[in-house]
Amino acid sequence: MKLDNTFLWGGATAANQIEGAYLADGKGLNIADVERVANDKHIRKVDSKPLKDIYYPSHEGIDFYHHYKEDIKLFAEMGFKCYRMSISWARIFPNGDELEPNIAGLEFYDKIFKELKRYNIEPVVTLSHYETPLNLVQKYGSWRNEKLIEFFLRYCRVVFERYDKYVSYWVTFNEINEILNQNEPYHQAGILFNDNENRFKTKILVSHNMMVASAKAVKLGHEINPNNKIGCMVQWPLTYTATCRPKDMLARQKFMKNDFYYTDVMCRGYYSNVCRSIWKEENLTFDFKKEDLYALKTGTVDFISFSYYFSSVVKMNSKDKVEKLDGNPYVKKTSWGWDIDPIGLRLSLNQLYDRYQLPLFIVENGLGAIDKKDESGDINDDYRIQFLNDHIKEMMKAIIEDQVKVIGYTSWGPIDLVSVGTGEMKKRYGFIYVDKENDGTGSLKRKRKKSFYWYKNVIKTNGESI
Ligand code: BG6
What we know:
- It is a single chain.
- This protein is an alpha/beta fold.
- The chain has one domain: TIM Barrel.
- Helices cover 39% and strands 14% of the residues.
- It has 15 helices and 13 strands.
- The chain starts with 7 loop residues before the first strand and ends in a 6-residue tail after the last helix.
- The relative contact order is 0.14.
- The protein binds 6-O-phosphono-beta-D-glucopyranose.
- The site of 6-O-phosphono-beta-D-glucopyranose has 13 residues, from loops.
């Protein structure tokens, strides 16, 4: 099996997880800059401003801000055809609501795009990857407020125009579907709930504002350059039924509605019966403005990008409620308790392509693991190679055997970075090791792992080596 030469192989990161330099050159604070480290047992505490003597992982990240030349060179050495990255909104508009952008912030990304061009690496740029400017959250209530649509579009116009000669692939909001799935969608939408707030209603309103913003950004991006390809981004939680009991099948259908809620609107351009049934269940109706509905209709995406890390299993419990099981007995788990299911990736690709017939882009997939150096200081991460090998193989089957259209594959965190879930460094995804620990200590020195050479060969052979 081999893919053709146009397939975009690469890796994916987000600004707040790698750049550091959190106040450099006029950057403002974003929501990641006030999040502390936690672990898999505790959630990350969020402060209202950076406090003295508290360690915030985003402040230094892996200092990509100053190491970008070295890091991009390593990506090029692996043969990357593309690199998914995000622009930090608060570097461009430090408070989010200014009228004019911060030129020093724009210049930083000029340098990044020039460097990528030097190696013929195609940028795939996420406009908002868990890094809403903090001022927009504190002053306006984040995406509860439709003013953010205007601010977001101002930012989009600036970056679409400025980087037009470098960037053709854009992604609007990272894992937007997690707004409905998460208890508190802080990362996705900058939302921490007030007491007595109707959480469901807020999630629907916030999702609406973000989907309108995304649709308007798609339209704007196409006006600025009709060759722009602009996609949505979702986390795809392929789900199995615990048994073949019809009620379990119903549970699965119900469980996945939260995800189709977003892809239906962003790909089809309207709130489908699936969306309306979710409102109905809460006995709510939403009368959105005509002009918003028009924006959704006229700003459908060019492709669907998604992250895939694990699959889930659900059943209908005795109270007729959907219940998620703790894992699938047929698959193994990662050290962070995520089910490892490569076939689930093939199924996801089929599921999304069947439903929307839009090109797909796998923009995140990978294994977070603890890496240990051997006596000679090398990192032989065979477990990571195995994980990626098995997932890429299933992706190739979907492309070749099932005839699913896939634009590219970017593994998550080609270089070790800060974990979103826990803020840790020890949950490593990279082909490139970064000498940095959970408490922020370390020399930041980069080192190739065994998987570095393995992935290089996968790209060189367009997957034939798998
Ligand atoms: C995705 C995010 O949810 O999962 C990434 O888009 C994140 O930003 C990745 O890093 C892996 O999650 P974690 O918690 O291991 O960092």
